[in-house]
Amino acid sequence: MLYLIGAGILLAVLAALTPWIGEARRIAKTAREDHAGSRGTHHAKQLREAIRLHERHLQPLRGEHTKLQAELNGIARREQAELERALTQALIDSSFLKIPGIGPKLRDRILGTCFDGSLDSLLRAHQVYGVGQEKSFAIRNWVQQMRRGFTSRLEEDFPGKSEVQAKHSARSEELARRLKSLSSRIARREEVVAVAGEHLAPLERTTPRTFRRALRGDQPAAERVGAYVTGAFAEWEPLPDWFAAILKEPDEA
Asked: Whose CB has fewer CB within 10 Å in the chain, the N or C terminal residue?
């Protein structure tokens, strides 16, 4: 008896729910179809595909930019090292013999034994035959004195500076021009992608679920659906510049 009562109740509930379930299915189907056929969905698809295309085209440009920048940085480092070496040599030529107790022969022996182009390498002069404690101390003082004004002297003229700069200037200028042009191309393309992304974002926030809520009387959802069916721009409006830009082939942008 209880089984029959329970079955009867279940049948009554199912009978009551059947119209509601049917209506929910109808609304869900209508929402999916309306969303799929909306101008907003069409525009969103166009924008996503165009953005992906431009991003793919940007990757090798960014890779080339990184490569050129690395080469330019490498040239700058090599030029700086050569300038420092040239200045160090100029300082040695002009004042190393002024160190008390250092004559031409001892200077040549020190340079041939421990000098590697840097001031600090001269701090190993105590390893050279003929350099005692007193001369080693004098050399150390000279190195410290040269260090103090070294950076400012690099900005001034000194023997060998123009030759070093001339050696690297042509390639550096060429790379700088290429980087400037490439940076401009990348920036323009990224701006096109960014603007398109800003217009795509609100379209992607409107889904079939938004349409279902609108069909059930949700006023905020209905307002969003109204904007969505208009798309990224209304059918009667002229094609916006930003939309035309993102739809161009990357080579034309």
From this structure: N
Using CA atoms, how far residue 111 sits from 3, 61, 85, 89, 90, in Å, is: 109, 48, 13, 10, 13
Q: Per the structure block, which two tokens stand in for 147?
A: 């260090």
CB contact at 8 A, 115 and 106: no
* Cβ contact 231:39 at 8 Å: yes
pTM: predicted TM-score of the whole model, two decimal places: 0.75
DSSP-derived 3-state class of residue 74: helix
**pLDDT tens-digit profile, the chain (253 residues):** 445 444 444 444 434 444 546 678 888 999 899 999 999 999 999 999 999 999 999 999 999 999 999 999 999 999 999 999 999 999 999 999 999 999 999 999 999 999 999 999 999 999 999 999 999 999 999 999 999 989 999 999 999 999 999 999 999 999 999 999 999 999 999 999 999 999 999 999 999 999 999 999 999 999 999 999 999 999 999 999 999 999 988 875 5
Can you give the residue ranges of every domain in the chain? 27-252
The pairs formed by 211-215 with CB atoms below 8 angstroms and a separation of 24 or more are: 211/30, 211/31, 211/32, 211/34, 211/35, 212/27, 212/28, 212/31, 214/31, 215/27, 215/30, 215/31
3-state helix, strand, coil in the chain (%, to 5): 85, 0, 15
